[in-house]
Design a protein that fits this description.
With 386 residues, this protein is mainly alpha-helical. Helix content is 72%, strand content 5%. It has helices at 2-23, 30-53, 85-108, 115-134, 138-156, 163-194, 199-205, 212-228, 237-240, 246-255, 260-267, 269-273, 276-297, 303-323, 327-354, 372-385; strands spanning 62-72, 75-83.
Length: 386
C-alpha cells in the first residue's frame, strides 16, 4: 500500500506544481515560483529514492493499478503504473537531474517577467516524462510521449517575441508528430495481434522470430523513437531546440525527452529480439547518426549547438547498442549521458550569462581566471564525455 502511494505521488507532485503555478502565475515572484517547482520535483526524487531502496529485483516489478480507464468491447486499458528496474532507473534520472535543473533555473530566470509560467511548464514537462516512463501500457506511455512533445514546443518557443524561436518550436513539434504517427500505427498492430497494450502481457505472449506483423510493429516503434531521440532523418529539430532558455536545453537534451526513444526500445526489447531485421536497421541508422552529427558538430560556432550535435551523436551510440541487443549498455549510457550533458549545458549557460548573452565560441577564451567554478565543472563534464 505504501509503495503504491509513493508511486502515484512521483508523477502527481509535479502535476500539482504545474497547476498551482499556472493558476497563480501573475501573483507569484520568480523566486517563489522557482522554489515551489523545485521543492515538488525534489519531493518526487525523494519518493523515487525510497521506492528504489525498497525494490526487490527478484520479484520482477509490480503494477500499481489506479483505475479502470478504457473498457470498450474487447479493449480494456487500465490507468496503471509499472514499477520495475527500468522505470525506477528512469524515474531517478528524470526527478534527480530535473531537480538540479529546476534549482539552477531559479538563478537563471530570476529577471524574466514570465518566470512563473516557465516553472509551470517545467513541472508539466517533468510530469509528462514521468508518465512516459512509468506507464504500464503503451497508451499511458503515449500520453506522456505527447505531453513532452507539447511541453518542448512551449519551452523551446518560450521567448516567443523572437520569430526564429517560434520557427524552431514549430519544427520540433512537427518532426515529433511524424514520429508519433509511427508510434500510433505500432500500437494498432500490437493490439490487433495481442488484444492488449499492457507491456507485461505483450512480452509474455510474444513469440515467432521474423513474424511480418512484429517486424512492421517494431519498425513503426523505431520511427517513433527516431522522432523523439533525433536520429536520421528526424534529427534536425534538436540543434534548433537551442532557441529555448539554457535550462530547457539541459532538460530536453540530458534527462528527459531525447532518451524517450531509447527507453521505449528497451521497454519493448522482447519484440525487437524477435525482429532481427529491425535491429539491423537500428544499428546502421545509429552508426550513421553518430558519425554525421559528430562531423557537423565540429563545424559549429555556437556553444550550445556544439553540445546539441554532440547529443545527437551520443544518442546514435545508444542506438548502436540497442541494434546489437546490448540493452543494459544503452541504459548505462543514458544514465551517464544524462549527468555529463546536463552539466555541460548548465556550464554553457553560466558562460553565456557571464558574457552577457554571447554564444559564439570564436569570441570566447581566457575565461578560466574569471569564472573558475564553471571552468572546473566544465572540465569534469568534458572528461566524462571523453
Amino acid at each position: 500500500m505504501r509503495t503504491d502511494l509513493l508511486a502515484i505521488l512521483v508523477p502527481v507532485l509535479p502535476l500539482v506544481g504545474a497547476i498551482i503555478l499556472a493558476s497563480l502565475r501573475r501573483k507569484l515572484s520568480a523566486n517563489v515560483a522557482g522554489g515551489l517547482a523545485t521543492a515538488l520535483i525534489a519531493s518526487s526524487f525523494v519518493a523515487s529514492v525510497v521506492l528504489f531502496l525498497g525494490f526487490d529485483a527478484s520479484t520482477g516489478g509490480r503494477t500499481v493499478h489506479m483505475l479502470d480507464w478504457i473498457n470498450v468491447g474487447g479493449m480494456n486499458i487500465p490507468l496503471a503504473l509499472r514499477i520495475d528496474a527500468l522505470s525506477l532507473t528512469m524515474m531517478l534520472i528524470v526527478t534527480g537531474i530535473g531537480s538540479l535543473i529546476h534549482l539552477y533555473s531559479i538563478g537563471y530566470m530570476h529577471q524574466d517577467e514570465r518566470a512563473p509560467t516557465f516553472f509551470a511548464q517545467l513541472n508539466l514537462f517533468s510530469f509528462a516524462m514521468l508518465m512516459l516512463v512509468m506507464g504500464s501500457n503503451f497508451l499511458i506511455t503515449f500520453i506522456g510521449w505527447e505531453g513532452v512533445g507539447l511541453c518542448s514546443y512551449l519551452l523551446i518557443g518560450f521567448w516567443y517575441k523572437t520569430p526564429e524561436y517560434n520557427y524552431a518550436a514549430r519544427k520540433a513539434f512537427v518532426m515529433n508528430r511524424i514520429g508519433d504517427v509511427g508510434m500510433v500505427l505500432a500500437m494498432v498492430l500490437l493490439f490487433q495481434r495481442f488484444g492488449t497494450l499492457e507491456y507485461a502481457s505483450i512480452m509474455d505472449m510474444a513469440t515467432g522470430v521474423n513474424d511480418p506483423l512484429l517486424i512492421a510493429a517494431t519498425l513503426f516503434l523505431f520511427i517513433g523513437a527516431t522522432g523523439k531521440s533525433a536520429q536520421i532523418p528526424l534529427f534536425t529539430w534538436l540543434p534548433d531546440a537551442m532557441a529555448g532558455p539554457t535550462p530547457v536545453s539541459a532538460l530536453i537534451h540530458a534527462a528527459t525527452m531525447v532518451t524517450a526513444g531509447i527507453f521505449l526500445t528497451v521497454r519493448s526489447s522482447v519484440l525487437f529480439e524477435l525482429a532481427p531485421f529491425t535491429k539491423d536497421i537500428i544499428l546502421w541508422i545509429g552508426t550513421a547518426t553518430a558519425l554525421l552529427a559528430a562531423s557537423i558538430g565540429l563545424f559549429q560556432n555556437d556553444i550550445k549547438k556544439v553540445l546539441a550535435y554532440s547529443t545527437v551523436s551520443q544518442l546514435g551510440y545508444m542506438f548502436v547498442a540497442l541494434g546489437l541487443g546490448s540493452y543494459s549498455a544503452a541504459m548505462f549510457h543514458v544514465t551517464t549521458h544524462a549527468f555529463f550533458k546536463a552539466l555541460l549545458f548548465l556550464g554553457a549557460g553560466s558562460v553565456i550569462h557571464a558574457l552577457g548573452g554571447e554564444q559564439d565560441i570564436r569570441r570566447m577564451g581566457g575565461l578560466k581566471g574569471h569564472i573558475k567554478i564553471t571552468y572546473i565543472t566544465f572540465l569534469v563534464g568534458t572528461a566524462a564525455i571523453a
